[in-house]
C-alpha cells in the first residue's frame, strides 16, 4: 500500500497550510491526513472545524453536502452539521481543537493524538508556525508603545518552544515551520531569535537517535527543490514564484529526519515560474460599489459622490503633464452618469464559472457551488472615496501606486504626518497587471492598503477577493464576523503554495 502520513498542524489559523497538505493527490493517492489541527482563536477554529467536516464528508460521499451549498449561497442559516453527517462531524470535532498552545490542556490533547497517529500511519509530519506578531518588525514597533511592555517577557517570543516540544515528542519524518521575514532579525535578550530557533532544532535527537537536517526551498529554472542553506535568507520563500498572485515572502524551514534526509537532494518538481496577477483571480468577479459609512448610503448617493470627485480631479489635472489623468477622470465621470447603479453585495456566479483551463482558476473555482460567498463591500467615509478613486486611476495611468506626495492637496487627510513620509503608502492600489502586495491581517482595519484597481468600483477588496489573492478555493467559507474573516484570510498560508510544498516533501519521502 502507498505510504500514508499523519499530520499535526499547530497554530493552524483557518487552515491554509493544512489545506495544502490535505488536498494533495498523487495519482489517486492522498498521502497526507490531518490528525489534529490546533488554533486558539474561536472564529478561526470554527472555520477550521467546518473545513475538516467538508473534507471528511467529501471523502465519504464524493460531493459537497447540499446543506452546505445552500448555507454557502446564503439561502439558509447554518445547519446542525452533526445532523447532516454525524460521523463526519465527529471526525471534524476530533481533528480541529480550540486550544492554547503552552497550556497543560493543549499538551495533553496533542500528546494523546501523537500516540494515536504513530499507531495509525506509516509516519508523521509536523506543520505550522508560531504567531508572527512578536517576530515581525511591525509587531515589535506596535508592542513597544504599550505601557510596561518588556520584549523578553512576551510569551509569543517563546511559543516556538512549544513547537519544538511537540516536534521532539512526535519525531516526524519531516516538519514545516513558517513565519515572517522579520524573525530573521528579531532579537530577545540581545540574541537573534532565528539563531535560538536553529540551535533548538539542531539539538533534537542529539545522543539519542536521529536528528533533523534543515533544508531550504530553492527555485531555479522553474523547478523547486530542497537544498542545504548557506545563509538564513535562503529560507525565504517567494509565493509569486509558485504561481500565487501575491508578493508574499515568508521564512519556511523544512526539516528532514536524518535517516531519510539523503533523499532530499534528488527531489524536485516543476513549477509555473510565471507571475500571476490580481487580474487573473478577480477580473471575473461581479463588479460592486463600496458603501458610504457615514450618512446616506444608497447607489444614487454613492454615484454622485464618486462622479463629483472624478469631475473635480479632472479639473485639477488639466495641466500638460497630467493630460492622461485628466482624460481618465473624465471617462469615469461620464460612465458614472450613464451606468446602471451597482450593488454592494452579490452571490452571482461569474460567467463561465468552473470551466476554465487555467490551473490556478481550476484550483479556486468549484463547479458544485451555486453562488459566490462573502463578496460584499465595506463602507468608506465619503472623503476617502476621492482618495480611492485617485489611487485607482493613477495606478491605471502611471502603472504604480501613488505616494502621499502624488495626491492633490484637496485630498490630503486631516493628519499632521501626511507629508512627513511616514504615511507615504497610506493609500495603496493593487495593480491589476501585477501580483498584489502581501495580504495581511491589517486588511481588516480599513482597506486603505488594498484598493481595488477598477476606478469604477472605488472600494477596497471584499473578503472573497482577498481570499482569492491568498488562493483559497471558493468553497472555503470563513466563519465569524467580517473583521474576523479578513483577519483569518490575512494570517493564512496560501493553500496553493502549501500544496506545492507538500508535493516537494512527498517526493522527498516517497
CATH architecture designation of the largest domain: 3-Layer(aba) Sandwich
Structural class: alpha/beta
* Main CATH class of the largest domain: Alpha Beta
According to CATH, the fold-level topology of the largest domain is Rossmann fold
Helical content (DSSP H or I, runs of 4+): 25-40%
Number of helices: 17
Cα-atom Rg, whole angstroms?
Answer: 24 Å
Strand content: 5-15%
Unreliable runs: 135-139
Main sheet makeup: 10 strands, mixed
Distance between the termini: 12 Å
Number of strands: 14
- Domain module tally: 2
Average residue-wise pLDDT: 90
Q: In CATH, what is the homologous superfamily of the largest domain? A: Vaccinia Virus protein VP39
- Tell me the quaternary state: single chain
Structure notes:
The chain is α/β, with parallel strands linked by helices. The protein folds into two domains: 5-277 and 492-509, Rossmann fold (3-Layer(aba) Sandwich); 278-479, no CATH class. Helices cover 37% and strands 13% of the residues. It contains 17 helices and 14 strands. Strands 1, 2, 3, 4, 5, 8, 9, 10, 11 and 12 form a ten-stranded mixed sheet that branches. The radius of gyration is 24 Å and the shape is globular. 45% of the residues are buried. Residues 135-139 have low confidence and may be disordered.
Amino acid at each position: 500500500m502507498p505510504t500514508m502520513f499523519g499530520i499535526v498542524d499547530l497554530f493552524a489559523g483557518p487552515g491554509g497550510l493544512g489545506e495544502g497538505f490535505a488536498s494533495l493527490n498523487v495519482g489517486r493517492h492522498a498521502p497526507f491526513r490531518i490528525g489534529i489541527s490546533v488554533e486558539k482563536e474561536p472564529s478561526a477554529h470554527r472555520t477550521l472545524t467546518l473545513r475538516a467536516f467538508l473534507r471528511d464528508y467529501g471523502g465519504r460521499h464524493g460531493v459537497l453536502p447540499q446543506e452546505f451549498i445552500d448555507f454557502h449561497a446564503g439561502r439558509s442559516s447554518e445547519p446542525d452539521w452533526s445532523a447532516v453527517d454525524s460521523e463526519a462531524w465527529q471526525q471534524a470535532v476530533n481533528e480541529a481543537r480550540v486550544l492554547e498552545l503552552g497550556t497543560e490542556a493543549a499538551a495533553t490533547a496533542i500528546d494523546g493524538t501523537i500516540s494515536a497517529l504513530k499507531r495509525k500511519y506509516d509516519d508523521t509530519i509536523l506543520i505550522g508556525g508560531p504567531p508572527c506578531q512578536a517576530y515581525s518588525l511591525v509587531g515589535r514597533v506596535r508592542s513597544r508603545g504599550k505601557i510596561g511592555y518588556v520584549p523578553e517577557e512576551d510569551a509569543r517570543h517563546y511559543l516556538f518552544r512549544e513547537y519544538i516540544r511537540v516536534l521532539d515528542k512526535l519525531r516526524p519524518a519531516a516538519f514545516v515551520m513558517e513565519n515572517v521575514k522579520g524573525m530573521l532579525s528579531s532579537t530577545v535578550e540581545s540574541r537573534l531569535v532565528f539563531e535560538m530557533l536553529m540551535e533548538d532544532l539542531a539539538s533534537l535527537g542529539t545522543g539519542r537517535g536521529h536528528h533533523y537536517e534543515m533544508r531550504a526551498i530553492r527555485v531555479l529554472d522553474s523547478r523547486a527543490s530542497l537544498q542545504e542553506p548557506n545563509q538564513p535568507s535562503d529560507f525565504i520563500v517567494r509565493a509569486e514564484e509558485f504561481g500565487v498572485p501575491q508578493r508574499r515572502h515568508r521564512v519556511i524551514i523544512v526539516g528532514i529526519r536524518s535517516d531519510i534526509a539523503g533523499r532530499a537532494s534528488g527531489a524536485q518538481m516543476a513549477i509555473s515560474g510565471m507571475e500571476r496577477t490580481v487580474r487573473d483571480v478577480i477580473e471575473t468577479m461581479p463588479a460592486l460599489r463600496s458603501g458610504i459609512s457615514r450618512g446616506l448610503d444608497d447607489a444614487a448617493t454613492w454615484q454622485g459622490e464618486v462622479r463629483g470627485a472624478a469631475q473635480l480631479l479632472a479639473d485639477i489635472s488639466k495641466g500638460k503633464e497630467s493630460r492622461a489623468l485628466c482624460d481618465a477622470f473624465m471617462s469615469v465621470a461620464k460612465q458614472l452618469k450613464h451606468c446602471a447603479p451597482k450593488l454592494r453585495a452579490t452571490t452571482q456566479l461569474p460567467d463561465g464559472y468552473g470551466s476554465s483551463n487555467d490551473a490556478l482558476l481550476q484550483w479556486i473555482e468549484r463547479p458544485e457551488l451555486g453562488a459566490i460567498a462573502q463578496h460584499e463591500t465595506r463602507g468608506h467615509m465619503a472623503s476617502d472615496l476621492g482618495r480611492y478613486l485617485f489611487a485607482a486611476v493613477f495606478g491605471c495611468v502611471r502603472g504604480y501606486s501613488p505616494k502621499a506626495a502624488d495626491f492633490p492637496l484637496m485630498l490630503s487627510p486631516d493628519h499632521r504626518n501626511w507629508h512627513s513620509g511616514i504615511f507615504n503608502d497610506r493609500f495603496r492600489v493593487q495593480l491589476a497587471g501585477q501580483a498584489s502586495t502581501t495580504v495581511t491581517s491589517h486588511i481588516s482595519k480599513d482597506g486603505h492598503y488594498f484598493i481595488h484597481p477598477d476606478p469604477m468600483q472605488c472600494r477596497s477588496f471584499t473578503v472573497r477577493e482577498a481570499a482569492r489573492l491568498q488562493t483559497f478555493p471558493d468553497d472555503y467559507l470563513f466563519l465569524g464576523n467580517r473583521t474576523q474573516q479578513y483577519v483569518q484570510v490575512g494570517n493564512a498560508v496560501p493553500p496553493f503554495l502549501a500544496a506545492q510544498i507538500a508535493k516537494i516533501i512527498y517526493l522527498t519521502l516517497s
